[in-house]
Design goal:
The complex is a heterodimer of chains A (600) and B (250).
Chain A: H1 2-29, H2 35-54, H3 58-81, H4 89-111, E1 116-117, E2 127-129, E3 132-134, H5 136-158, H6 160-170, H7 172-177, H8 182-208, E4 210-211, H9 216-230, H10 235-256, H11 261-275, H12 295-298, E5 301-302, H13 307-324, H14 327-352, H15 361-377, H16 382-401, H17 410-430, E6 442-443, E7 446-447, H18 451-473, H19 476-486, H20 488-493, H21 498-524, H22 534-547, H23 552-568, H24 573-590, E8 597-598
Antiparallel strand pairs in A: 1-4, 2-3, 5-8, 6-7
Helix pairs in contact in A: 1-5, 1-6, 1-8, 1-9, 1-10, 2-3, 2-4, 2-8, 2-9, 3-8, 4-24, 5-6, 6-8, 9-10, 9-11, 10-11, 11-17, 13-18, 14-18, 14-21, 14-22, 14-23, 15-16, 15-17, 15-21, 16-21, 22-23
Chain B: E1 7-18, E2 21-32, E3 36-41, H1 47-55, E4 60-67, E5 70-71, H2 77-83, E6 85-88, H3 100-107, H4 114-127, H5 129-133, H6 144-156, E7 162-166, H7 174-191, E8 194-198, H8 202-208, E9 211-216, E10 219-225, H9 226-231, H10 233-238, H11 242-249
The chains are: A mainly alpha (600), B alpha/beta (250).
């Protein structure tokens, strides 16, 4: 029992360090900084490199990690985050996500994707009190964090720059008017956060004994949840959130096994968001808007696409490719089509209702599993199973997401992320092996499980999806949903039940996500929980941002570029993600409404 | 007030834009040392934008802003504060989760003379006894009137020569409005700080200002001494409502 508590404290220690950085940056810049996530993985790899490869002493490695991460953080802030300060937080958030992908994959190219054994630089079990065993290593980590927190608290309370950081966090414009150089303050906050991220990464590697370039995402996500739990922007809250999560996680693992980790983390998060919408110590602004609404989307208007372009696109997509395309092109095309279906369905949530749901992998997985199980264990054919899977995904996702629609601001994105993650985690708990031998489509006894067959089926489904999405967009219902997205307070004042319409939009998107997931499952014939990742969710978001967040046909363009072009250029997976990060930064920077939306 | 003024702030033919929207259309105004000047005008007439141009919060596309003999048209806000321009933002904007003392110290961010700052802190406590009582209280818990005093004191902590106030009476009860106006006069006479302030209620504003400027759709349409403006039939008609009342009675 005490061992579990100690384990929880050590995990919580790492989360607290990470969460403080995330909360700090959120406070002064109102940006959820995904780049921070990469510093966990990077810190671990750099420390491994310095200690295990070069043979530097641990303390020197730690200092070097702090220096490198700080410098990198400063560069990222100057190059990517600050230039977007005049846009809405979403722009900067997406760019930091892109940066984190770039960093992770550069790190993978540099250090390779292998799991490295992190050297035991300090004894791990040289003390015993009663039944508990712990080591110098543990004490050093906890002591370092405690010292850091005390120094940070004093700095923020009594330091001149510290006070300026707090003033900026509480009212950026007023701070500017007091002559506080807000840009400098933001640089300082970013640098501190990056350094803390690096240190947290070193500590997690020291604790688990393994370092890997991509290990940052998990730690980062949990730290982020810890920061949210404590109340984004509240540093004391971040520390408390970190330790609470660490301990709950340790006990969750102790009682239910490792697969319960994510469920514990996100269920706690969702519960807190519902009971205390601003987190444990955070304050919720009286009027808050969704990150997607406002000028970021209001800018520009969609390009008018002439009828002949549609016709040519339909002919190329529906006739030329299936007739003349080889299997490879057709398989790539099928991927593009499936993601286009999912993303087109997602535009009603992200664009019209203005909810940047970050967990679409959840309903995609629900659709995939539902369709697989229906065809394998019940007398369903492909043709009846796929739409049923869409309904199943919509219903289950809606039920699970039902409590979150009153959550405000950035928190709703985080809550949807939680719902998506919990869905996948539950599936992993119930069906950890994956499902084999999922049957493909047949028609009149003829198997259509060929590249052309799948391609044509998915092409027709995409056409139907686009048609339905356009009908919804231009209906009374669509306009009501749009009113929720463009001005929630005004919609509420006009008698629109904002929560219900957000839920409805989410259900519609979940339906198409489920269809897409089902199509994937039948094409792959094999599915397991590792397919439905955070990366998949973010890919869906990126596709709609790229094409224009409320344009269903924009999703097709987004999917073509981000899935099709990447595949056809035959980039390695790492390079592909780096390019895709750069594309995302470019789009957000220069075409913030999407490539099909003219800037104004 | 002495007749010989020296120019403290001047805007010469200043233009500013929000995106394509032409918010300031060639405005020229001056504030002399130790003077109270009022900016009048309806909604969206460019009053706040003028303030922002002076503080460096909006980019001046054409024209010049001079302060104490220096061209500050392109200077960042922090340099302007250092040069002696302080601001009382619209809706007060005190830092809600910082104590009264911390708010005052935030106002002194641009200064590095520790002894001087400590001295001014004492001076503010003498000048605003309510703030002294509440020095360790979070600013967000103060009443509207107290927050306004804190915003004044915070601005004074940078030892300014000019304070720009954007609607300092906004959202306050009539009694508090009188107090705030008295306070502006007191700051002006006791500390010798010039004040440029935006006010919706022309009669109130002109009761304490020596001069005023009237803006409409981004242009200065009228300017003059407070008395001249009060007597101007156009002002009476549009801003004081007297013309309308007369018309209604007749």
């Amino acid at each position: 029992m005490f061992d579990t508590l100690i384990a929880g404290l050590l995990r919580g220690n790492v989360y607290a360090l990470g969460a403080v950085g995330i909360s700090l940056v959120f406070g002064v810049m109102n940006v959820v900084n995904f780049a921070q996530f990469s510093f966990f993985g990077l810190g671990a790899m750099l420390a491994w490199f310095f200690v295990a490869q070069i043979g530097l002493p641990f303390w020197l490695a730690l200092i070097l990690v702090v220096v490198i991460c700080s410098a990198l953080g400063l560069v990222i802030n100057i190059a990517v985050v600050r230039p977007l300060a005049s846009f809405l937080p979403l722009a900067a958030m997406l760019s930091t996500y892109a940066v984190s992908q770039i960093l992770d994959n550069v790190s993978q190219i540099a250090f390779t994707a292998q799991f490295r054994v992190f050297p035991k630089v300090l004894p791990t079990s040289d003390f015993q009190v009663g039944n508990m065993r712990f080591g110098t290593s543990d004490l050093v980590m906890l002591g370092f964090t405690a010292a850091t927190m005390v120094v940070m608290a004093l700095f923020l309370k009594y330091g001149k720059i510290g006070r300026a950081i707090r003033a900026t966090a509480q009212d950026q414009e007023a701070a500017l008017q007091m002559g506080i150089p807000v840009a400098l303050v933001q640089h300082v906050a970013f640098v501190i956060a990056s350094a803390l991220g690096g240190v947290a990464g070193v500590f997690i590697a020291l604790y688990v004994g393994i370092a890997n370039p991509t290990s940052g995402m998990n730690v980062g996500m949990t730290s982020f949840v810890a920061a949210t739990l404590g109340g984004l922007g509240s540093l004391v809250g971040a520390v408390i959130g970190g330790f609470v999560l660490g301990i709950l996680e340790a006990f969750g693992i102790h009682f239910f096994g490792d697969s319960a980790r994510e469920i514990v983390v996100f269920v706690v998060l969702i519960a807190v968001l519902i009971l205390r919408p601003g987190g444990l110590l955070g304050r919720v602004p009286l009027i808050s808007t969704e990150p997607l609404t406002g000028t970021f989307l209001g800018k520009g208007r969609p390009l008018r696409i002439p009828a002949w372009v549609w016709l040519i696109a339909a002919v190329i997509g529906g006739v030329v490719v299936p007739l003349f395309g080889g299997d490879y092109l057709l398989m790539t095309g099928t991927q593009v089509l499936i993601y286009a279906i999912i993303a087109a369905g997602f535009t009603v949530t992200a664009g019209q209702a203005g909810v940047l749901a970050l967990g679409q992998a959840g309903p995609i997985a629900l659709g995939a599993y539902a369709s697989a199980l229906l065809t394998l264990h019940l007398p369903f054919s492909f043709w009846t199973a796929v739409p049923t899977a869409g309904l199943v995904a919509a219903v289950i996702a809606s039920v699970l997401a039902a409590p979150i629609w009153g959550v405000k601001g950035h928190y709703i994105s985080i809550a949807t992320l939680g719902v998506g993650t919990v869905i996948v985690a539950i599936i992993r708990l119930v069906e950890p092996q994956g499902i084999y031998g999922i049957p493909g489509p047949q028609w009149g006894g003829v198997s259509l499980s060929t590249p052309v067959g799948f391609y044509l089926i998915d092409f027709v489904v995409l056409l139907i999806t686009l048609g339905l999405m356009w009908r919804i967009r231009n209906s009374h219902l669509g306009r009501v949903i749009s009113s929720v997205g463009s001005d929630e307070v005004a919609a509420l004042a006009s008698g629109v039940r904002v929560r219900d319409y957000k839920a409805l939009a989410f259900a519609i998107s979940a339906f198409f996500a489920g269809i897409g997931g089902a199509l994937l499952a039948h094409q792959y014939t094999y599915i397991d929980p590792t397919i439905f990742t955070m990366l998949m969710s973010l890919l869906v978001v990126t596709i709609v941002i790229m094409g224009g967040v409320s344009l269903p046909h924009g999703a097709v363009v987004g999917a073509l570029v981000l899935i099709g072009a990447m595949e056809l250029l035959r980039f390695t997976p790492e390079l592909r993600i780096i390019v895709y990060g750069l594309v995302l930064i470019g789009v957000v920077r220069f075409r913030p409404g999407g490539v099909l939306v003219r800037n104004s | 007030m002495s007749e010989i003024h020296t120019e403290l702030l001047s805007l010469e033919n200043v233009h500013a834009y929000y995106g394509p929207f032409h918010a300031l259309r060639g405005n020229t105004l001056t504030v002399q040392k130790g003077e109270i000047v009022s900016l009048l005008g309806g909604n969206a007439s460019g009053k706040s934008t003028t303030m922002k141009a002076i503080l460096g919060l909006v980019k001046v596309k054409a024209g010049r802003v001079r302060f104490a003999g220096r061209d500050i048209t392109q200077a960042p806000t922090s340099q302007r504060v250092r040069a002696g321009i302080a601001s009382v933002p619209e809706a007060r904007r005190v830092f809600p989760q910082m104590t009264v003392d911390e708010n005052l110290l935030a106002g002194a961010f641009t200064r590095n003379d520790k002894a001087g700052i400590a001295e001014d802190l004492e001076r503010m406590r003498d000048h605003f006894p309510r703030l002294a009582e509440r020095r360790r209280q979070e600013a967000g818990t103060l009443s509207g009137g107290e927050q306004q005093m804190l915003a004044f004191a915070r601005a004074l902590m940078s030892r300014p020569q000019l304070i720009c106030m954007d609607e300092p009476t906004m959202g306050l009860s009539p009694k508090l409005v009188d107090q705030v106006l008295d306070e502006i006069v007191r700051i002006n006479t006791e500390l010798g700080v010039a004040v440029l302030f935006v006010e919706q209620q022309a009669e109130l504003a002109l009761s304490i200002a020596s001069r005023g400027y009237v803006l409409a759709t981004g242009e200065i349409v009228l300017s003059g001494s407070a008395q001249d403006l009060l007597d101007d039939p156009q002002i009476q008609d549009v801003y004081l409502g007297k013309g309308n009342l007369a018309a209604a009675v007749a």
